[in-house]
Design brief:
The protein is of the alpha+beta class. The protein contains 7 helices and 13 strands. The termini are far apart.
Amino acid sequence: MEKSWKEAIKRVLRESDAPMHYTEISEQILARGYYSTDGATPAATVNAQLSSSVKHDGEKSPFIRVGKGIFSLRGTSVPVAVSTSKPKAQQLAVEAEDESSDSIIHSFGMYWQRDLVVWRNDLKMYGKQQALSKPVDFGKQKGIYILYDHHTVVYVGRAIDRPLGKRLYEHTVDRLGSRWNRFSWFGLLDVTQEGNLRETPFNSSLAALVATLEALLIEALEPPQNRKRGDDFSAIEYIQDIDPELKEREIQNTLRSIEQKMRGGA
């Protein structure tokens, strides 16, 4: 195991035969056991490490940015997406744009399963940035959500005055209660390294707002002719994690089943 994120990043890139996106780098670091963390946002941490090194260390940085969110080790033979022939000021503008997004959506979850949540008035909804990262409770998230009957959209709503968990719980007991089994959500609140939700200043441009709306439609509707996610959509997707209470129920049910079989065989 490496002693720091930076050394772990260098090791993954050294073992790769092509540039990598920072989310893929973080996934490989955790999967290969090169570094461990209790943080909830490993991909964001890796991006910050890479971007900070490129910005502050300049040509002394061991990393180079070859595309939006894509990095390689300096000295490797890779195609560079950002031409070095551009004026210095223009290159810095591209790098600054890459480091921080003005998207109003910070996190999202796609096709989460209704039966993996314990439904109550103050429910918790757990998601992970990656399989080995710390789970985050999105019950207090704000934003918009979509209800599905399998893959068919049945309802679109917003969670502003009441948080996401509260709004979804209401749909388990209202007229839509029996009409949906999956949901997607797009959150306005950012996630801290500790796994807490926080509000961030709204400073999006009109272009960024339009790009976000386009991306939301593409993500939600999955039109067959759109081959990629909307431009400039930099929100982090979280995979659903089963509620710990449900995990405990499964363990107890398994133990009871084993006990019954042992008694039956006695």
